[in-house]
Amino acid sequence: IKREKVNAETALRQVYKSFPEKFKVVQLEFMQERFRDVEDVAERVMRNLLKSPILSLSHLEENIIVVAYDLAPSDTASMDKEKVLGFATDIGGRTSHTAIMARALEIPAVVGLRDVTKKVKPGTTIIVDGDRGRVIINPTPAQIKKYEERKRKFLAYRETLETLKPLPAQTLDGREIELAANIAGPEEVDLAVKNGAEGIGLYRTEYLYMNRTSLPTEEEQLQAYAAVAEKVAPHSVIIRTLDIGGDKFLSPLSVPKEINPFMGWRAIRLSLELVEIFKTQLRAILKASRYGKVKVMFPMVSSLEEVKKANQILSEVKKELEKEGFSFSNPIEVGIMIEVPSAAIMADVLAKEVDFFSLGTNDLIQYTLAVDRVNEKVAHLYQPLHPTILRLIDNVIKAAHRENIWVGACGEMASDPLGMAVLLGLGVDELSVAPTSILEIKKVIRNLSWEETQKLASHLLKLSTSQQTRRYLGTKLGRRIRKILKEENNA
């Protein structure tokens, strides 16, 4: 700017134009991919310099399909569900939080397409087939007609599931499972209740902290938690404390950029260091217990020391509230997420310190198998039925039951009919799934016997490879579940 006497916009454009050649010099594929990151930053800076409006997905005037390189989980959570008909991204995996949020909001999505942004231009007509992971560009009239018919059949199938809403999630031989919902905010609780959720098994509170310039106050949090507790009463709501990190980032805090954020300063680690922020959240959770049955859960626990420290801080907050004259449920049930291998292995020790476990299968699989669950290049290594995973889950459930505490599962494995059947056979007491999956999972549960799933799980634990477990499960139960869900397959 000083040397050539040009404005900031011109300077940015000139420097940016030199980047492609510089990145081509570096032959590492990783660095080639990082060019898109630089490109995105440059585009954002340019928009700010030109004071160009930034597209918001929360207030739209017309129906759209979003095509993007990537979407932050907070972008997905704030989408206008009535106007966003679907979305497709270049990167991401089935168990990334963006994909999970899309399913929770009933927004058709396909992620990890690598180059969809290069192939789809603004104004292009496309079909997003979230069930089959396909995006059809410029579909023919025949294809449009075919998908309209599929949509009609799917909606009719959903209507048949509605008849299951008042019925319990009970197996043919009488084993009843608590079937709850995963939500990210009060706006999703109505959908959960509509689908017959028996409470909220996972309230992801981090979305209260995202896409804003200041931290949520204690009163803001109290209102959000109390609203959910009231709506699901007499059932319970499990409020997970702040789980920031990985693919979820906190706007108001100066959280340092990390090379591997999934294994860095996140979740309970962050809360135990930022004690005042942690205490504010715990105060709001405890106060919300006056409005319904509230339980608190700590995420990403990896050691006994973390559990003890978190419980100590919770005790301090209780004493502070009592001194201030506030009432709350006491005792309040306290649980932890089992999503780190060290916690799964030490489950017998940790079970003595808490009231319940919740299996976070998404991260447990990721950390145990060393597979980045948002990296489509290693997606084939992400194996929920890996023998190691099944043995860890079995260890956790047995350790918990020996201490007379219950075990839930709130990862994507619980939402998959085959995965759910395995969890059922291993002995989970509660399942928490996306609101839109509740009725379908209930239908499968009501058409299986607990005894048969126990025998199935027992045999799976004796197998040595993922290929063996998948083949055995598919042979023994695949066709049966497809028959149970035949209405959907016909759609």
UniProtKB/TrEMBL annotation:
GO terms for molecular function: kinase activity; metal ion binding; phosphoenolpyruvate-protein phosphotransferase activity. Mg(2+) binds at residues 339, 363. InterPro entries: PEP-util_enz_mobile_dom (IPR008279), PEP-utilizing_PTS_enzyme (IPR050499), PEP_util_AS (IPR018274), PEP_util_C (IPR000121), PEP_util_CS (IPR023151), Phosphohistidine_dom_sf (IPR036637), PTS_EI (IPR024692), PTS_EI-like (IPR006318). It is found in: Cytoplasm. Phosphoenolpyruvate binds at residues 204, 240, 362-363, 373. GO terms for biological process: phosphoenolpyruvate-dependent sugar phosphotransferase system. Its main location: cytoplasm. Its cofactor is Mg(2+). It catalyses: L-histidyl-[protein] + phosphoenolpyruvate = N(pros)-phospho-L-histidyl-[protein] + pyruvate. It is an enzyme of class 2 (transferase). GO terms for cellular component: cytoplasm. Residues 160-448 form the PEP-utilising enzyme C-terminal domain. Keywords: Cytoplasm, Kinase, Magnesium, Metal-binding, Phosphotransferase system, Pyruvate, Sugar transport, Transferase, Transport. Its EC number is 2.7.3.9. Residues 61-133 form the PEP-utilising enzyme mobile domain. PANTHER family: PHOSPHOENOLPYRUVATE-PROTEIN PHOSPHOTRANSFERASE (PTHR46244). Belongs to the PEP-utilizing enzyme family. General (non sugar-specific) component of the phosphoenolpyruvate-dependent sugar phosphotransferase system (sugar PTS). This major carbohydrate active-transport system catalyzes the phosphorylation of incoming sugar substrates concomitantly with their translocation across the cell membrane. Enzyme I transfers the phosphoryl group from phosphoenolpyruvate (PEP) to the phosphoryl carrier protein (HPr). This is Phosphoenolpyruvate-protein phosphotransferase. The lineage of its organism: Bacteria, Candidatus Aerophobota.
